[in-house]
Amino acid sequence: MAMTKKPSLNAQAFDTLRRDIISCTLKPGATITEAWISAHYAMGKAAIRHALARLTQQGLTVNQGRLGYTVAPITIRSIRDSYQIRKLVEPELCLIAAGKLEAEDLRTLHRCSQASYDRRNTTEMVAFSQANHEFHCTIARAAGNARLARLIEELSDDHMRIAYVSMVYGQPGRHWSQDHTDITAALEANQATTAAELMKAHLVSGEEAIMQAVLDRPEIVEAQLNSG
After folding, report:
1. Are 207 and 79 in contact (CB under 8 A)?
2. pTM given for the model
């Protein structure tokens, strides 16, 4: 029987901090230091440094030098800017990816489309955010442009936090799941234009729901609700 390999301490530290940033347990704009993380999470310094380096690379934390790290803020401007890029790029990636998706890619898209969650269960909501992330990144990678795929992965990783906020305060998961199902069906049928149109509509409705959630509950981003 094959034994499941246990994640390294570095990987465990990264996954734990990433999960708490996505779920906003570590609030946007909060300052965190290696000493604070060590005390609160009982992690070693080497694992903490490795995790913070990866989180910073993915845009989830900001290195403030001797002051420590800041959890990247969620701002109205950052949401709008991110969605502007995604609405320009992801429909085009659907046009390119249609007809190029391997069987494994399609299995991944179907699996991610079936994800669901209970608003009372933080673990399920984080997992749903991960499924949403994996869905978009799978299409981007299938399109075959490595630079664009990395761009979408970076944007989508930060969107996991934004998606979590929307799940808690706004858009129900079944809406996203149905959108993903429809996009997958169009890609599988090699209906490139339809897939692109569905992706554009999906991103537009997602942005509207998230913006409404933020405007209805400004405390979820504390003092970071500004347009600059």
Report:
1. yes
2. 0.76
61: β partners: 71
Sort 65 into a burial class: Cβ within 10 Å, 0-12 / 13-18 / 19+.
exposed
- Using CA atoms, how far residue 115 sits from 104, 108, 124, 134, 201, in Å, is 17, 11, 9, 11, 20
How far apart (Å, rounded) are the C-alpha atoms in residues 202 and 83? 11
Residue among 165, 164, 162, 159 at smallest CA distance from 137: 159
Check: CB of residue 45 under 8 Å from CB of residue 82: no
pLDDT tens for the chain, 228 residues long, are: 444 566 788 999 999 998 888 877 888 888 999 999 999 999 999 999 999 999 998 788 999 999 999 998 877 888 888 899 999 999 999 999 998 999 999 999 999 999 887 777 777 877 888 898 899 999 999 999 999 998 888 887 777 777 776 676 655 555 678 999 999 999 999 999 999 999 999 999 888 888 877 776 655 554 343 333
User: 204, 155 in Cβ contact below 8 A?
Assistant: no
Take residue 50 and report the two structure tokens written for it.
């490795």
The two three-digit tokens of residue 80, written as one number: 């709008």
Contact 68, 30 (CB under 8 A): no
CB atoms within 10 A of CB 53: 15
